[in-house]
Amino acid sequence: MVTALTHAQYAALFRATPVALMVFDRDLLMTHANPAYLAATAKDLDEIRGRYVFDVFPNSPVTREGYDQAASLEGVMRAAVTTGLPQLLAEYRYDIPLAAGEFEVRYWNVNEIPVLDDAGEVDLVLHFTEDVTHLVREREARDSARRLNVDLQRRVAAAQLDLRQRAAELEVLNLRLQQASAHDRSTAEALQLAMLTTLPAVEPLRLTARYRAAAVGDRVGGDWYDALALRDGKTAVAIGDVSGHDIFAAAVMGQLRSMLRAFAWASEEPPSLILRQLDRAMRDLQVQTYASAVLATFERTDDAGARRVMRWTNAGHPAPILLRPDGTSVVLDDGGPAVMLGVLPETRRPDHEVVVEPGSAVLFYTDGLVELRGTDLLDRTVALRASLERHHTLTGAARVDAVMGDMLGAELDDDVAVLLVELAVTGDFSGRLATSGPTGDL
Known about the structure:
This protein is α+β, with helices and mostly antiparallel strands. The protein has 11 helices and 17 strands. Helix 10 runs antiparallel to helix 11. It is elongated and about 110 Å long. The N and C termini lie far apart (105 Å). Keywords: Hydrolase. It holds the Pfam family SpoIIE.
């Protein structure tokens, strides 16, 4: 025989129920609530009993304009009173008031269950709520991740398209080279010059580049430089040297430069991770060569001034030199020799950064500028710094030509690429800032 529950047992059951329950009357005055409801809404029973629901839980001012949270919920509550039928709102946003007039965004599943008296009229309504905020947040996070994945796929597709276009260009160049009767110096140099970049205009940076070919046979092709304006407002610059001095080195240089350009444009990662992408691509695409490179980005500092932060990473390449506004210089040495590209694709290279003041310049160069048979590399680097400091009052092409004139003779054993990045003083601009791209002996 089943024994009917007593009023005390019903009250105990109401209190022990883990779901949030609240009871209101026909006038939407709150009469009772269980502990689960009080915990979910951060209220005390004495604080809500006998009060109008929407006096206790007022509309959130954040969503009041154009969206009335209370109106929809009140309509459902009154529909339960007038119709005597259960009502439902799914994943309904209703913010909970906190201290000092603040509100916490919350989402609920709301059930209104009428309780009828002996005459069949609605006497009370059981307000059953389930806090589903965490479910909504999880779905929003999944949707956000899905949108990010779609955006990444678009960027990868754009990079792959650029790579295919560059590969097609190289195929055409290689076909023309195969049809040539001789792979002599002039052919290799023409290929090299065709692949060097026209520098962008990126105020307040002034970019100047030079390339000089070796005087011996066809010893050209491995040295390169690049610069491009990125979508996030940064400017990326790169310089590198592919092993070998022949037409093959020139062709491989074109591949690496194009891949690095695509990765830098499509990614917002720091320089070290972009070089790691290039290293992996060389392995996966079977680009069988070794190369050194420096990749750097220039971006605004947090303040409103004209300073820039340079972030760079080095893959076994001669370290850049920073020339300060006062004419002193420093080698941006990253602490030791770094692994070249093509050796260990999973190498983790560090990123470094330095603040570049207006009036400063950073010189990127290949080893042909400082390596000279019968001389010490350290002495030659000291000589390069001295030349930069001696010509610190010059700018642009005049500065680059003066330094190269100090360091190089009439005939070179190795080809040389130089890229100078100058941060102009405010107002110190005249015409295009990209003062030089590839030049004749350059």
